[in-house]
Amino acid sequence: MPVPIRRLFVALTLCCALMAGSTACGSGDKTTTKEVSAVAAEAATPSPSTSAERQKFAKTRFVANAGLAAGATYQWIVKPWKAGKFKKGAKGRKTALVKAGLAGAFAYNRLKAAQHNAQGDPQLAKALAPLTAGINSLKDLPSKLRKGDDKAPDTYDDLINKVKEAGKSAGAPVKDQVPSASELSKG
Fold first, then answer.
1. Which pLDDT does position 170 carry in this prediction?
2. Which has the higher per-residue pLDDT, 183 or 103?
3. Is the pLDDT of residue 36 over 50?
4. Rounded distance, CA 101 to CA 184, Å?
5. How does 125-144 read in b/e, with b if 16+ C-beta sit within 10 Å?
6. Residue 105 and residue 140 in contact, taking contact as beta carbons nearer than 8 Å
7. For residue 162, how many other CB atoms are within 10 A of its CB?
């Protein structure tokens, strides 16, 4: 029995000390609990990095995402297309089309992420602004690939080259990075 009473006494003492301390530290202004919790929430929130760091990381993330999109496009769309794997009757056509569809969806996802990353850097944002409509149009291209549209691989390749040029002009050169097949399926 003596242990619970000691705990109760300690808890009661701490509560009284906290109440007395909070009323003694206040200025003449009355503050509400909401104001105190808002100030505490602001203090607990980690501060963002400096704008220079945000821009540096924006370029880095842009290069990584655009490089993955470029690698997937070349490896699983452009290369098989040039080899004639998408033509009716070609050996391995179904497999090539499935991989191209996954690569198309993956490239679209990575290009959207690269476009979002570019918003952190003014030069990249200006360079990619004209390509927004082109990136959005890639959403329908996996279905066009399945239907046998011969111009779909050209569209991917052209847009990827424009994104590479935009990155290069903004000081963020993009190199192809071929993702693994498991990365393609994850998106």
1. 87
2. 103
3. no
4. 10
5. eebbeebeeebeebeebbeb
6. no
7. 16
